[in-house]
From TrEMBL, chains A, B, C, D, E, F:
Its EC number is 2.7.1.45. The keyword Phosphoprotein does not apply. Coiled coil: none annotated. Keywords: Kinase, Transferase. Belongs to the carbohydrate kinase PfkB family. This is 2-dehydro-3-deoxygluconokinase. The gene is kdgK_1.
Length: 340, 340, 340, 340, 340, 340
């Protein structure tokens, strides 16, 4: 079984039921999620040997995070235990014209306080084929950017393929900080993943003629973005997700893959949203699976987009789908007829 | 009050809440349903004297099935009590491009193990005007096909009108088995009900130019299907539901009725789905009600389709609507304005 | 802080969960709401000093109504305590072609039995800038119409601006009774609010060429309605909401404002409904806020419609939105993108 | 199957979940219950043909009351449909030293407004062996006491045995009113049921040396009460329940039966309470069953007390137990060991 | 109405449902609580004008804390808004021999980061009669001990009576730190409240012959504790709660009050626990109410203990009881009989 | 880490919420459990490397069983996937005098249909120190007794210590069948575990002077039972749990351990029950842990009883406690005081 490692933060996600606003909530659904953890779960659900690396407190709230990953078969044996708190994010689900809202309470989480000595990357990355992280991880600050670099250097030594989802978070750092730190890490990256805003936010590379809040994207503008990214940092592949947000309930969803020479566009899905958080991560999970299984470029982008299309129909951060389910959709059956 | 009897299996339906996948469910909504039981509830809700006949264990899980029917006024006094288990089906509700999924656990249910001596049809069908069953019932195997035939013979003797919903279930039998058994029972049937796939699955009668997973149906192709069915088995009426599945959330819904000479198409509804399981059964219930009340052919098909259109907005297998509600929609008010 | 007073009934709202029908409900969500109370909550959420006036029993069910208002910052110190019961309404949420259904159980509520001596309007309206009521309040009968008139006279004396939402309720009175009573109260009103049916129901003033159950409204027909209303009763402003009901899930939503000379139409929103009860009240709340803050006519109608557009995405009678959220939508961002 | 009829009010019971106080409740469990309806459900659960007679509105809230009874096999075909509202009671469950609390909202319910012409007792009581009502029914006022008398006269004519549970409700009438009305009805009664307070409240007949709020009862004092009751009204049997309330969680529970010559005391149970509402009604149900089945006096009181002991372990007004379960406890196994 | 101010932290309380362990929880009940906030709610429920002072972030999670207090009538107008996070505590409810468990996540909460300049005590304490805080507040560190002292000095100037509940929290500071800081604040305190461990933890004053984990307390040993406390710090009154913990479900609960000359012991309650968090705070609330209303010493301690006895039967931190309910129990009716 | 393997069936457990009876349940809590699976979870929670071996279908309901075990760290890599169904048991929780009730629906589960070739015991038991099974496993019939024997022979070869919990299930086999089959397997067993009834049911070895339904056990009678068991089958240790069932809520709980020469009795716990299913399994888990860690005989029985005492306070089949928690109780702190 192919081994993949992802590294980052997993948070406790607290969300009011249904479409209740925070001010109406008497209880919170309590699940766990985070960019790289979500990718690990996707991959474990596809049958890969996926390990997630982070630091989590020893107490029950930290342990529940470990359990959430174990339940879906993620290898948690490399998680460092210690520190005081689990990062939290509060999520209010939007509907119609009302957007979803996230309130972060993640400062001083165990992983954000972690030290370089906590992680023995030579051991962690033993026998590993693929390593994935996102721009959120170095944004945690402290020693975390250095920990990322430590990991990436070992990846280089061991010939491990690396993907990074740029994933800019304005609450964690400024665009300038992001650009400086990410620019140092990008040379280690083989596969760059971004959404329709990230390249602009992190590297000041803009798609032309696009207004994301209008719900309409100019797909051609993203060709240039991908090309510039690849040329600047030497990425072997650049994948960009293209979300057209019609409302909090309805989105268009598609993506583009660039391999340094050709541009491959997926088909577009009109998705009726159950939960869109983790949509980008499920795209990353699908992309990594397809790459590790040597799908063609077109098959790769179709698999990744179909996987993330399905994620939008699933509650929680994690994408709970099988390879068969993704392939069925990628091959064209999106009719939603009952499977008996 | 007109008496109707339906005969078949009622199962315990276990469904995760909302759009949760099986792997995320910590609890299951526990309701009861099954093709013929659903029709009986429809008819009881329309004010008819509807009895459901089956075999159910004496224990509490069997009793809860009886209670579920009694609650809505179905006559359960003819249910045979005995056997070991209640059939179960697990239902995961789909959304957007993700289809609903059913896992059956119905083998060895009390009804599937029932014996011909369990049912005294002369008594059960006393004073009855209409008898309904579906293709699922003989598919249960054992003595059940013979029990069906026993019932049908008594219907013939007593001049009871008979309807059958073909309802092919690939988990219960092969197409060849279905064809053989059903062909023997069809001569007793007056009204044949089928969905857009059943005639092909059971009797190898195909509509031309239709791809059901594309969401687009060729309505004209079904005229030929209905005609062939009527000619082959001598049905007085053939009704075919026409589901155009756009996604797990949105379906087109219409139907056609053939009376041996003319084809009557209902108006089409674009339904936003709450729960589509039991959609076909609610059509059958509406059809039987309309026939028993001597509606015109066009009124009949409009009533049946409006009834089943409303079912798609209701949780559970049972169609919880009144005659007034169906008529209001059939007559054209589908605006959904609040009724105060 | 600007002080506003609203006067009317607040009811216990009992609603089955999700899309369950009454006959399926084993529990009811228990919240509180009512036309004028809903407006008070809207205004408190916008930061105004909003007081709600009514009469509620001293017992726990009455107290829970007080608490529901206090929670959101409404001043409840002017509520008269006494009487026997809290009015109740049962609400079943519709879906697709199935309409929402309301069963009222409000007869003999404490406020409907209230006496003129219960309310010392000189004290209640001290320092108040704006007074709001709806046509539901006088429809409660008994001394309530007289209590309304008492309040309105004091408003006149104190120069308090008055708005009235016509809000015809056929269960409470006939059209003839409504016309007679409302005609007496209208001369005190500065701002008249109505939906697409109210003017016809209460004052027999009809929009031409409109069939509300078809989902299509003839906007021009409402210009004449507004003009006639203004001329008949001397309203300074007339605002009419224009709901185009496609289904129980999807509505078009817009409004028109007439200031005696010009007609201002808002943009139209296609809303995917979470809960549409209180939609009109949230429009009233937005309108009052905009008027009190001297928005331009066009800004006023856009604010009121954006506010009520958002209400449709929120569970319960109350509109839980901030001024910032309304302005963001009114200015054009309805893409529903996640706010992190 | 022996036919029994009970007559009275069935109310919608709205109860916060668990031990939440009214002020904390965001939802209410919605079940149905009422003294005589509870007895009917007990008897249906024991396999008797039990009909409940009342008047309920035609709307969905009334229908849900009918459904609640049908679910458990009660014959609802004699219920008169009409009137405006279903009586409601709000129930907050107590714990430890905090008592349970009931807020009634039952005025003007359909049954309280019923007319003598609504009930054709000759038809209703055809073939009936036993008739039961409680002191709550005549307390509803209006024509209801006369309706009771109408029923009782027909019972006398037909030789139907009659039981009455005195059940004094201070919110419905004064002790003087109760005494006057009940004194007129008692001559028709064969079996009188009372709790440790009723005889004092209704007929001013007091047990000596008992302080019910101390949790200690003087059993001997109740012998005199029973004897006086029997002598005054000519009851053939008098049964008195003896609740020793230690706390809201823990009660002693026993009863005494007097047959005009001997006193039979049941064993005492220390019950750990799940829900004690309906405790007295379940005693009545057990008593009637035992009498109809010609149990000995001692067996009768043991059956009735064991039945009601079990009721305290069951949520809701209804006693959901079988004859076998009651007999098992009455015969001595109260160990609560798991039944596999 | 008498004005009382309490000052401290209010936290978001996240608790699994029922008796689920953290590792089993899929959702958390979300309420708010904290020592001084709990006292403020108690007092507001008794009808006093109670204000709670703290610092809370402006975001929705902070606002929900404000709403929780407003709902029960607490004056929140003096709460300073700002800072980043709301302190959180996770609470797992124990049962039988398994203790309840609290995991704190309160570091860096807005109040713990507050500055002296945030609070204008002259304004806050205007017209106030009573001020209350607990040992938890200075334990928050940073400038909070100084803020406490600022408040206490103003109390002294204005002649406001002051109570302090020692409430030692070992996760917030060491015993040595507590002793040093608290010793400086005690001279401003009139009424000292402590549980059976606090005096030992904070001031090294031990009751003789008591082993709290055995469930048995030596009451006489606490007389000496109270006397020493009063003599050391000049308290006018010392109240000590005496919890005898039999199991997580069953506790003995009593208290002692010392007025400098006499010792007053309350009656003892055997409480069957629903939720014991906030038990001590509800004692403080009862004590303050009784003192402000000039109850006798014996009445005071009985009122405070009865109030807190009832709290153990109520979910959440807040004590939701009325003066009448407390008095009824204090006067001896703990039988838990249903109140209709 | 010490490796332990347990072998048996894991079932889907469907339980109404709280104390609802089956007939009242609208949803079922869905967890997983079974004698040997419960022991595996206990051991994983204690930090051992515990693997559970069974056969489960590949479908989602089977996978959810795997996930339930993985969540708590049980090694599921040896589970054979295949077969059609997951065994189910329905559990209704008892209260007071009403016993808990189990309805089994486990016939034809995947494990009961498993074949000897499905299990490669040499591989499964590689490096294992301890093997555990219960009398339920051979009772499943078919090839399962032979599979057990296959496993036990490999244990013997590898010198793996074996424990067996007799666990008689009357629904699965007769006493005669149990005796015959179990007698063949016992010679491989080192540690025999039984409850107060098992030895009598399986081997006709009776304790004298004990009536289990009376709630009183004669402890001395069990000494003889243990001795006879040890002598008959050559067990090195015999452990017998001693449940004194006072009611469904309250049990006495203790145990005895016999090592062939001495009898060691644990202290007795009066447990207030949250969920007693799995109580015996948690005893087995504690016993195995203590044996593997070379606790003294007295420490061993105290650990096992304290572990299972705590289980009674935890929902579900699994015992969710840590070694520290068990030791704390075993050493005497059962006061249930809050752990902060």
């Amino acid at each position: 079984m192919k081994k993949v490692v992802t590294f980052g933060e997993i948070m406790l996600r607290l969300a009011p039921e249904g479409y209740l606003r925070f001010s109406q909530a008497e209880k919170y659904g309590a699940t766990y999620g985070g960019g790289e953890a979500n990718v690990a779960v996707s991959l474990a659900n596809y049958g890969l040997d996926a390990a997630f690396v982070t630091k989590l407190p020893k107490h029950e709230i930290g342990q529940a995070g470990v359990n959430a990953l174990r339940k879906y078969g993620v290898d948690t044996s490399k998680i460092v235990r210690g520190g005081d708190r689990v990062g939290i994010y509060f999520l209010e689900k939007g509907a119609s014209q009302r957007p979803s809202k996230v309130v972060y309470d993640r400062a001083n989480s165990a992983i954000s306080q972690a030290k370089r000595v906590d992680f023995d990357w030579n051991n962690i990355l033993d026998d590993v084929e693929f390593f994935h992280f996102t721009g959120i991880t170095p944004a945690l600050g402290g020693e975390v950017p250095a920990i990322c670099e430590d990991a990436l250097k070992v990846c280089k030594e061991k010939g491990i393929m690396v993907s990074c989802d740029l994933n800019y978070r304005k609450n964690l750092w400024t665009k300038a900080e992001a650009k400086e730190t990410m620019s140092k890490l990008m040379p280690y990256v083989d596969v760059c993943i971004a959404n329709e805003e990230d390249a602009a936010d992190v590297f000041d590379i803009h798609a032309t003629n696009t207004d994301i809040s209008s719900g309409k994207l100019n797909y051609d503008g993203y060709k240039e973005v991908a090309k510039t990214l690849a040329e600047t940092f030497g990425f072997k592949k650049v994948a960009i997700t293209l979300r057209g947000s019609i409302s909090a309930n309805d989105n268009n969803w598609a993506a583009m893959l660039y391999d340094g020479s050709e541009f491959y566009f997926s088909k577009n899905y009109l998705v009726h949203i159950v939960d869109r958080v983790g949509g980008g991560d499920s795209f990353g999970g699908g992309l990594i699976y397809a790459i590790l299984n040597n799908f063609s470029m077109q098959e790769t982008i179709e698999f990744a987009v179909a996987a993330s299309c399905l994620k939008h129909s699933i509650e929680g951060d994690f994408n709970m789908v099988s390879v068969d389910e993704v392939l069925k959709l990628a091959k064209g059956d999106g009719s939603g007829r009952v499977q008996r």
